[in-house]
Amino acid sequence: MTTMPTLHTYQQNHYDYLMQHRRGNTNEHLLAQMYATALCGQGTMPLYLGLPLDIFRSMMDYHFPTLPQLPLPTVTQHLEAARMPELDDLRTLLQQNVSQVPPDSGWMTEILCAGCTGNDHLWQDLGLWSRKELSALMHDNFRPLAERNTKDMKWKKFLYKQMCEGEGVYVCRAPSCKVCVDYAACFAPEDDTCNAP
Prior knowledge:
This protein is an all-alpha fold. It contains 10 helices and no strands.
C-alpha cells in the first residue's frame, strides 16, 4: 500500500525547490515559505503575493535567479477594493519604517499589506510557517517599527494600533493595555502550530 503525500510534504518540496535556486540574501527563506504555501492553495495571499505580475517576476528573478521555471498557484485570492484606503495608510506606516534597501523594501511592504487583508493571524495569512518567522520578517525589514512592539503584541493588531495612533484615533477606551478586557486577544500566545513541517 502506497502512502499519499501530505500537504506538508508538498509545501516542503516546493520550499526546498525554491531554496535550491536562491541568491543567498535576506528574505529568501520567508518568500520561499510564503510561495510554497500559496502553491498548495493555503494562506490567504492574493495571486503573486499581492504584487503586479511584472514586479513579482522581477522579485523572484532577483531572489531565485537560477529557477528554471516559475510555478504558479492554481488557487487565487483577490484583494478587496474596499480595503484599499486602509492599505494606503498601512503602506505609508511601513514605508516610514523600512530597514532594507530598495527594491526589497518595496516588495516586502506590498506583501505585508496584502497579508493584512486576511482574517487569521498575520503569519498564517502570509503563508509563513510560524509566528517566529513573521517576527524575523518585521525585524529584518521594518526594524524601527518592530522595536516599538516591546510587549510582543500580535503583529496585525500592533500595526493597526500604530496606524490609529499616527492618525490620532484612539478606539480603545482602556487607560492601558494591561487593564483592557481584550488583553488576551492582543497579547495571548498564538497557536504556532503550522500547516507546514
